[in-house]
Design goal:
There is one protein chain. The protein has 324 residues and is an alpha+beta fold. The protein is globular. Helices cover 15% and strands 21% of the residues. The strands form 2 sheets. Strands 1, 4, 5, 8, 9, 10, 12 and 13 form an 8-stranded mixed β-sheet that branches. Strands 3-2-11-6-7 form a 5-stranded mixed β-sheet. It has one domain: Sulfite Oxidase, Chain A, domain 2, CATH 3.90.420. The structure holds ligand MTE. The site of ligand MTE has 18 residues, from loops.
Length: 324
């Protein structure tokens, strides 16, 4: 998303790591993607489309399927593309940097701090944070502001349920999310010229309460790979991909609108809401159409990424051209 970034269009073939190379790389770092805790321990997952899951990370069990209202009939993006064509600037600005440079990152043990304007905050181990919630599979479109998209089967928990458990105070109007800062494991964080760290994102409280919003801990039936935001990331499928902050360490309830990283870095290009909108172009990328990774032809971009029915009400009366 930086100016020096190459234009987002096709995935060049050299950018896709062959599966065999990828699997060998993962084999060398076995264990780095594991989440401890009984709910996550190996048991074959049952997702029909994933019966022969990628077999790279630990399979997840007790996952509820069938959130059909938001399911999509679009073909799933290949696991290989979803895990080798990434944006995660903590590991570098190239699309293949996150998969190449994230093997040192340790997503376990992990704790999540919940603080700010809430009555039930604290610091929780990831296992305790997840335990009260039902893991659900959600097949969502992911639309990057760079005009590429994917379809990914996430596994996550309802953000609304997490918010309810935190018991926000009446003055809490927004939620801020922060990525961990570990320059020794995340080489991109050694430079402040790439982005100001930590990566911060935010949602208005009613956006966070929308049933589509999840905190993802897995994908393709297995725990999240490091490059996709292990062990915990946000997924709000009606917004551009940059809202979906990875490797979350802290969740804070605030009165003021959080200053999200891309808006701070380039205010003329990025806003807070970042709802997918084919009618409002980004200065460098048309938003009218997109390239689905794996497809040859571009396709039309859908308002709110196809989730208009579920989320349009959140923005009734707002000027979506100004609040981009
Ligand atoms: N989160 C952090 N911490 N750092 C990042 O650079 N990139 C964002 C988002 N979350 C980013 C991040 C962008 S621009 C996109 S498009 C998505 O992650 C990409 O998610 P994916 O790599 O799993 O497809």
């Amino acid at each position: 998303m930086l100016i020096r970034h190459k234009k987002a269009s096709a995935v060049a073939s050299h950018e896709i790591t062959p599966q065999s190379v990828y699997l060998n790389r993962r084999a060398m770092i076995t264990g780095t993607g594991l989440i401890a805790g009984a709910a996550f321990l190996a048991a074959p997952h049952a997702q029909a489309a994933l019966q022969n899951g990628p077999g790279v990370n630990t399979p997840m069990s007790n996952v509820k399927k069938g959130y059909s209202k938001v399911g999509t009939n679009d073909a799933l993006t290949s696991y290989e593309a979803a895990t080798t064509y990434n944006n995660f600037y903590e590991f570098g600005t190239g699309k293949d940097d996150p998969s190449a440079n994230s093997s040192k990152f340790k997503p376990t043990p992990w704790s999540v701090k919940v603080d700010g304007l809430c009555n039930n905050g604290g610091t929780f181990t990831l296992e305790d944070f997840i335990k009260p919630h039902q893991l659900e599979e959600r097949i969502y479109r992911l639309r990057c502001v760079e005009a590429w998209s994917m379809v990914i089967p996430w596994i996550g928990i309802s953000l609304a349920e997490v918010v309810k458990r935190a018991d926000p105070q009446g003055s809490a109007k927004f939620i801020a999310f922060e990525t961990i800062v570990r320059p020794e494991e995340m080489q991109g964080q050694k430079s402040r010229f790439i982005l100001p760290w930590p990566y911060v994102e935010g949602l208005r409280m009613d956006e966070a309460m929308n049933p589509l919003a999840i905190l993802a801990v897995g994908m393709y039936g297995e725990v999240l790979p490091n490059q996709n935001g292990a062990p915990l990331r946000l997924m709000t499928p009606w917004k551009y991909g940059f809202k979906n902050v990875k490797s979350i360490l802290r969740i804070s309830f605030t009165e003021a609108q959080p200053k999200n990283t891309w808006q701070v870095s380039a205010p003329s290009e990025y806003g807070f809401y970042a709802n997918v909108n084919p009618k409002v172009d980004h200065p460098r990328w048309t938003q009218a159409s997109e390239r689905r990774i794996g497809d040859f032809l571009r396709r039309e971009t859908l308002m709110f990424n196809g989730y208009e029915e579920e989320v349009a009400g959140l923005y009734a009366g707002m000027d979506l051209k100004r609040n981009y």
